[in-house]
């Protein structure tokens, strides 16, 4: 089976499992540290596949870097966080930094991907955007962990569809693509 087809099947099965987890409220039955373990485990699996399976790494590395950057347009979900905060359904301690940070990262993905820059400036722009985006998503996860540990009911809405897709599908994919973008944009060490 060609790698591209295998990856499509994998992602559709993973997405289906994430939908099922949301439908059956699986995240609600996990202890407070369960959701970060899900995010960490899924991210680790993606990165393990990238770093340890040469055919997958070759396929991913053949993708235009813009494709990996444009995955981050999904972070426009930050608008929904702000709407839920306005409705009183998400605490401001989570919704405001997560929503605003995601909107900034998603918005900046467009010029980073499409600005007509030479190779050097483009690489620097991607590197700056990538580090900022990774720090943002890690801070969002840390904030969610902290709030969930203090009072799990604060983020209960995140255990229902469609938001349950964030920890079970989108956040691991976002973190993994940040790592892959970093690996692809860091110059290889030169032999002395």
List the helices and strands and how they pair.
Layout: H1 3-23, H2 34-52, H3 54-62, H4 65-70, H5 78-86, H6 92-114, H7 119-150, H8 165-185
Helix pairs in contact: 2-3, 2-8, 5-6, 6-7, 7-8
Please explain how this structure is put together.
The structure is a single chain. The chain is mainly α and 192 residues long. It is globular and about 50 Å long. Helix 2 (34-52) runs parallel beside helix 8, helix 5 (78-86) runs antiparallel to helix 6 (92-114) and helix 6 (92-114) packs antiparallel against helix 7 (119-150). The chain has helices spanning 3-23, 34-52, 54-62, 65-70, 78-86, 92-114, 119-150, 165-185. The model has no long low-confidence stretch (mean pLDDT 94). The chain is built from eight helices and no strands. The chain has one domain (3-185).
Shape: globular
Task: Report the major sheet.
Answer: none
SSE arrangement, N to C:
HHHHHHHH
What is the average of the pLDDT values? Answer: 94
As residue ranges, the low-confidence spans are: none
**Pairing-aware structural class of the strands and helices?**
mainly alpha
Number of strand segments: 0
Q: How much of the residues is beta strand, in percent?
A: under 5%
Number of domains: 1
For the record, give the distance between the C-alpha atoms at the N and C termini, rounded to a whole number.
41 Å
Using only C-alpha atoms, the radius of gyration works out to 17 Å
Helix coverage percent: over 70%
Number of helices: 8
